[in-house]
Specification:
mainly alpha; 0% strand; globular
Length: 344
């Protein structure tokens, strides 16, 4: 009885820890999205400089990652040749900088709720780019699933009260660049046997992002910032905002490492619905019934896609276990035969 009680306590503790990791990730992701919207929106903090904000984030993350890797040595650096860095990390850094720049820019033109609805297209973009780069196998049923997600997002866009064409282009561009980055991580780094946790990822990628962002910043935002004499850098606002962005990277690693990628996908759906509710009730963004119907359809498509991926993963793991089980059975049979000979 006591043994059963201790087991149930262990299970309860594990469940509580999983929910804690999920809650931390949702809170930080929620905070970063709303905080970025607050800073960039012209009706709120009114600092519409997405490239500058992204550069502040990358500078903060790069500096903190350098301290953790090189000064405090809490994380070991990865052995990486110059060729690997130039052929793998640099393209990924370029795509990451473009993704962050465009997604932050979209907050100036679109509501938080509508941006979350457009982000539902991420599986569509990842799958389509994966197929085009021959990393994914084309399947008719999967493509039909992708079309259902796209139709759902199109319906949500049709019902958007604050539809802005330029904002939609920016957000869709961010989705495409982010999806390409995810596929390239799988192709370039995984093929070379390199795995990056959030700290080492920021250590290598953040300086690269800064270099790519410097060019548009010099020509697009620096002249305006230089001529805006009334602006004074608020260390509290931008410091806490950057720290939240860094903490979010750690939370992603914690959540996936301690639970699973599927848990993160499910938590992401919960986060999206919470953001839509928050955007409607607190920020007072208009969320129409057509918005919700369209996003609901897209949500069902994403849920089915995640379910299909999980089933495929389980089937793959089951196939791996069959040879292992056969080998163990053969070993037990040989041991039994050996014991039988000894008894004779």
């Amino acid at each position: 009885m006591g043994k059963g009680g201790s087991l149930s306590e262990g299970v309860i503790k594990k469940i509580l820890l999983s929910y804690t990791y999920v809650a931390i990730w949702i809170f930080l992701s929620f905070t970063v999205i709303v905080y970025n919207k607050y800073i960039l929106d012209k009706k709120m903090y009114n600092w519409p400089f997405p490239v500058s904000l992204t550069m502040i984030h990358m500078s903060f993350c790069a500096a903190l990652a350098f301290l953790l890797v090189r000064v405090f040595k809490l994380v070991d650096p990865i052995t990486m040749s110059r060729d690997v860095y130039l052929s793998s990390v640099v393209p990924i850094g370029a795509l990451y900088s473009l993704s962050l720049w465009l997604s932050n820019s979209a907050y100036i033109y679109l509501s938080v709720s509508f941006i979350q609805m457009l982000k539902a297209l991420m599986p569509v973009a990842v799958y389509s780019i994966g197929v085009s780069l021959k990393k994914e196998t084309f399947k008719t049923d999967t493509m039909v699933n992708m079309l259902s997600i796209s139709i759902g997002v199109a319906i949500a866009a049709y019902g958007e009260a604050r539809f802005d064409t330029w904002g939609v282009i920016l957000q869709l561009g961010a989705v495409v660049f982010e999806a390409t980055r995810l596929v390239l991580i799988q192709i370039l780094l995984t093929s070379k046997g390199i795995t990056l946790n959030p700290i080492t990822s920021l250590y290598y990628v953040a300086p690269c992002c800064l270099a790519f962002l410097l060019v548009p910043w010099i020509y697009v935002e620096y002249p305006t910032l230089r001529d805006t004499s009334s602006f004074h850098f608020d260390y509290v606002i931008f410091g806490t905002n950057s720290f939240c962005a860094f903490a979010l990277n750690l939370a992603v690693f914690l959540l996936v490492g301690k639970t699973s990628a599927l848990t993160m996908n499910v938590a992401g759906v919960v986060k999206d619905w919470l953001l839509i509710a928050f955007s409607w009730s607190v920020i007072k963004d208009t969320v129409t019934p057509i918005n919700l119907v369209g996003y609901g359809l897209a949500f069902l498509g994403v849920a089915y896609y995640n379910h299909s991926k999980l089933q495929a993963l389980k089937a793959k793991e089951a196939q791996k276990k069959v040879p292992q089980a056969d080998e163990e059975a053969n070993n037990r049979l040989l041991e039994a035969e050996g014991d039988g000979r000894e008894e004779k």
